[in-house]
Amino acid sequence: MGRGRPGRSRYREKRTTVIPYRDFVLFTERVDRNVLKSLVAFLYYAPLRIAEIVGDGPRKWKVLSSKGRGLSYQGKLPESWLKSEQEDGLWIWKHRDSLPGIVKEDISLDGLLLLIKSEPLKHGKRDGPLEIDTRYPYMDLVVDQWEKAEPEAKVWDLKTWYVWKQFTNIEKDMYPHAFRFSRTTSMARDPKISLADMLYWFGWAQARTADSYIQQARSTQRTRTSIERNLPTGWDKKEDQ
To answer: Domain 2-56+104-202 falls in which CATH fold?
Structure first.
């Protein structure tokens, strides 16, 4: 059984900046295999985790116990709690079964829309399929990858560690989960996107998960707007000094 996640822990270094479309294009063009190019495109548009797409074996990792959480709230949790003995009671093991990934039958076409069925991780929920317009740039690669997959076979027959390695060898901050963070941040900044929209799209079970993104993104926007009201007209036309 594997332990943890490949690469840097996303709990320590979450990406909260949006991946600009130009950077997405440049990154995709640097990928040398079509199966990976199609995966980059799918990650850019779909809100899924890499393990939900390519599948993964069973895993276990350490999480804070009730005692550990209590100490954390009090500011008394040792920084080295992950390395402490299990008898200290600061952490417990959390287990996850193996994941099948997306197989050919999980995807279908409805006119111009690609419909994707995927069960979210972390006790999340999503009542219907995701819909992605096949006219989006590079989505033709996704459709080709899906069409050539064998029945009941995975659409992307890749290992999570391999994808992480290939992506970060090209650009260290373009790890697979960065695409999900990017889309989360982008949608959180959009006042037309509701809390319910985000819960459905990202498969979150709890509103507080979305709130952590929405509050930060929209509070920052409102404070910037407040500052800009007091600036002279034309301030944004000036070149950086």
So the answer is: hpI Integrase; Chain A (1.10.443)
